[in-house]
Amino acid sequence: MIKVDISVALFLYLFFSVVIVLLMWVFFSFGTKMKTFSSEEKYIWHCTICDNTYIDSRHDDISQCPRCGSYIERIVEVGPTPAGGLETAGARGQDGTDNGGEER
User: Fold this and answer.
1) Residue 31 belongs to what H/E stretch?
2) Whole-prediction pTM value?
3) Between the CA of residue 81 and those of 26, 27, 76, 86, what are the distances in Å?
4) In tens digits, what is the pLDDT along the chain, a chain of 104 residues?
5) What contacts 60, CB < 8 A, 6 or more positions away?
């Protein structure tokens, strides 16, 4: 039988417990970071016709919605309006009007 002093046994128990906790922390923290998907906002498009949000990294100014096939022009944010919303420039609907085809 191997004779081990109580202080050595306590040290080994605490040491291996801390090592296991650190390994689990590293495994779970890096595992979740690699699995999350992050994309730049300029690649995210939103179709106002069918309310579909999709990613298109090949086009800069105009994109075609994969669900309904309508063409979407990039909306350029100009700045805040006095009402508190964002003023947009260059937003056009499928029929080429500024209001997206809606009648006022």
Assistant:
1) helix 6-35
2) 0.37
3) 47, 47, 14, 6
4) 789 899 999 999 999 999 999 999 988 887 666 555 556 666 788 888 898 888 877 777 888 888 898 888 876 655 565 665 554 544 455 555 554 444 44
5) 42, 74
